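Entry for the shared binder. Reason: the reviewer on the internal report wants the predicted structure included alongside the sequence.
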Amino acid sequence: MSTFVVQGKQRLVGSYPVQGNKNAALPLIAAGLLSERAVLDRVPDILDVRNLLRIVESLGVTVTRREGSLEIERPGTLEPRLDEEMVHQLRGSVLLLGVLLPEIGRLEAPLPGGCPIGRRSLETHWRVFEAAGFDVSEQNGRVRIRRSRQIEHPRVYLPEASVTATENALLLFARTGGTVENPAREPHVLSLIEFLQKLGVEVETHPLHYVIRKGVSSLGREIKFTVPPDYIDAGTAAFAAAVTHGSLRLENLRPGDFIGIHSTLEAFDLHVSWEDDTAAVDFQGTELRNPEKITAAPWPGFHTDLTSLAIVAATQAAGECLVHDWLYESRMFFVDKLVRMGARITLCDPHRVLVCGPTVLRGIRLESPDIRAGMALLVAGLCAEGVTIIEHAEVVERGYENVVSRFRGIGGQIRKLENDKVESPG
């Protein structure tokens, strides 16, 4: 267990290097197994990536990191086994199924784990595999999948526009061809499509479906690809600048990825300006005002992964704000920790909270429940009075790269302690 110690009342100023996109890196690593050798640039050095690479290595794949690049070299035949401990911890491990099952035909593994933000059923994933001729069964926390028949150009309708189920369908159909109806359209899904197209997969994108006209029957020889910037990381920094009345330049960011976040920042009466791939957020002397409502939504709406950060911002803004995340029923269950810090928040139901601000937050000892809530607590600590101690810092590091060094680089006074024995703040 590791711990963040955050000194409050810090104003963040300077240039913030936006990391490579976590949600793009995981499917791209899986897609790298469709090539004899894949080189991925700007892969974030985060725990979720490290854990996925451990699973990949258990398949007999050689993984090498050098100077910001990740090299993935696979043998002709993959070992039909997975690191079960890592699978159990990492929900993103489900992405390997779309690559593995066309090759090995059958697999048994633990059900993938992940952050406790709600009931995230895998039924949409299983629908993909069943449409492609696989039988799927769950029992005692494990899943068994085996091919029972060959289906030419399978077609699957996703009852929800699940990002990872869409990615799994793309990876699976990259071998067989197929159609995905009601797919997710997030930028990292489009990055995966671009990667597959470079491998020779013929993919047509339409507003309501993706069609893989022609898959690849053999491994690609070599591919090089750059992971796009992480707009969730950039949005996190923007909210941190807002609550600390700071001024940041978010470097290496694509404006098109930031649409929903930009709109929500403006709803707080905040202004974001652009110069090429850099967003300038200057909140010095700015009074935050709460919008009446913020609702998480699929792309291009406001991203669910930033809901926790928006709640922290609402505690520092004038007026009342209803924050609604209909996707995950446990996303809001960290707000009791903000209330302990002094926030005025009413939990209306599992999907909605009413925030009344502004309030003075005070540093206390807390525990990170999931990646995004943990980072929200860290940001709350930056604007709070006194010292905030956040246990289970490793949970935050599942999704954020070099948290301490990057935030210290813009003025945040943060330390990380291993096997923490620091006393709680008074």
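Summary line for the report: Residues 163-176 form the longest helix (14 residues).
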